[in-house]
Amino acid sequence: MIMEKIGILLVSYGAREVAMADAFLRSQQYQPELYIVDKQNNPFNIEIAEKHAVIPDLNIKGICDFVKNNINKISFGIVGSEKPIIEGVRDLVEKETKVPLICPTKECAIEGSKVAQRKLFEKIVPEVNPRYKVFDPTSYKENGGLQGDFKAWIDELGGVEKSVIKPDRPGFGKGVGVGGEHFTTFEQAYEHFLSICGKEKAELVIVEEKIEGEESSYQGICDGKHLVNLPETRDYKRAFDDDQGANTGGMGSYKATGDILPFMTKKDRGSELKIERKIFRKLIKEFGDGLRGFSCYDAYIHTGNDQKILERNSRPGDPEIINLLPIIEDDFVEVCLKIIDGSLSKIKIDKLATVVTYIVPDVYPAKDSRIRKIDLKNAYELQKKFKDKIRIYPASVELKNDETFALSSRTAAVVGIGDDINSARDISLEGVRAIEGTNLRNRSDIASDKHIAKSIRHIEELRSAP
């Protein structure tokens, strides 16, 4: 059988895009040739790419020049990382090359401002917003007034432990301060506040009511006309077991065998999809095809009686989309072609559980300059044992002189796939243990029985509260 060759641009930041590349390579209908713009010399991408270029800051002009240099070979492109999306990579590339990209336009990149997100929800679905207030340090003549207003709002929320302090700008999974966890006194909270919006920085900050509940990640695909809902996933943001430590880009995630998570009900999912339809109808009417892509990604918190949205993004989750890409039953190239021509009305995903575990440098999310040589060979060898039940996706690693080195961010994602969460988790952890290297670690409680039981118990307590 002779398959049609198709050139695909992939703008790669880490494991999320490696998972996309892997999904393309499993195509049964096409012979994909991948033209990859990479943040670093990712060994997986180097091996499989038709052409590979490194642009460390993923600047959109460099990406556009790469497309121009391969203009006759690339049929379409896909972008997963928020930075080039926010900066307008689709606008520039489509204007100058006519190559269609699967990602939203700049004006649809809602994660560029958390304040804009809150104001958007205020208009469409005000019920998903926690109480919040925006602070602009440039509107105060002296810090005393700023501190006074900040304290008054903290008091109105019920104290430091009932507050969340966020930068308006993208934090890429980091930068958020949670009362009772990252700070416990007013002085500590104000110090965190000033670290974001100190008068010399003149940046907006948003201070929200802390919502108690359990988190889930909603992801949806838009083809410019339709919204296709993907199964629910659970992200683990905190650096250490038992949800301790600083926020990270995500230490791992899981998907259950169905569309919902163990602590959710069908009613929860129904309410969530109703909210998403409202948001989608508003955005598609305003932006149309500009919304094209994996552009509907909301972090929900379930309170037992309703849902709130913690933040919205216009790109696929990392790691959450990694739970789904390996088990898409439809041909991923065909899915992307349907996204581009506006004919994607559904997507078939296998009814399996998946668990993603990230292995990271031991100081992550802090950074240091230690050299960390790693070896993924034994992890890849597990594919002989588990076959298509395991995936090894290198992330913040670099190939130098045929050796692989871990950089300062998340090192590699290991996906376990199983008939239930426990079996998927066991495979994921075995894959992590097979990665050789020093000064690396991982969370051991992702999708554990204990963590899931804790979530179920918590949500039941909230539902039964008066």
Amount of helix: 25-40%
Overall spatial form:
globular
CATH class of the largest domain: Alpha Beta
Biggest sheet record? 6 strands, antiparallel
The helix count comes to 14
The strand count comes to: 25
Question: What is the CA-based Rg, rounded?
Answer: 22 Å
Extract low-pLDDT stretches. none
Distance between the first and last residues' Cα: 64 Å
Q: Give the helix/strand class.
A: alpha+beta
| CATH A-level architecture of the largest domain | 2-Layer Sandwich
Mean pLDDT: 95
Oligomer: single chain
CATH topology of the largest domain: D-amino Acid Aminotransferase, Chain A, domain 1
CATH superfamily of the largest domain: ATP-grasp fold, B domain
Q: What count of structural domains? A: 3
Kindly estimate the percentage of residues that lie in beta strands according to DSSP. 25-35%
Could you explain how this protein is built, in words?
This protein is an alpha+beta fold and 466 residues long. The chain has three domains: 100 residues, Rossmann fold (3-Layer(aba) Sandwich), CATH 3.40.50; 79 residues, ATP-grasp fold, A domain (Dna Ligase, domain 1, 2-Layer Sandwich); 244 residues, ATP-grasp fold, B domain (D-amino Acid Aminotransferase, Chain A, domain 1), CATH 3.30.470. The protein contains 14 helices and 25 strands. The strands form six sheets. Strands 12, 15, 18, 20, 23 and 25 form a six-stranded antiparallel β-sheet that branches. Strand 16 and strand 17 form a beta hairpin. Helix 12 packs antiparallel against helix 13. It is globular and about 70 Å long. The model has no long low-confidence stretch (mean pLDDT 95).
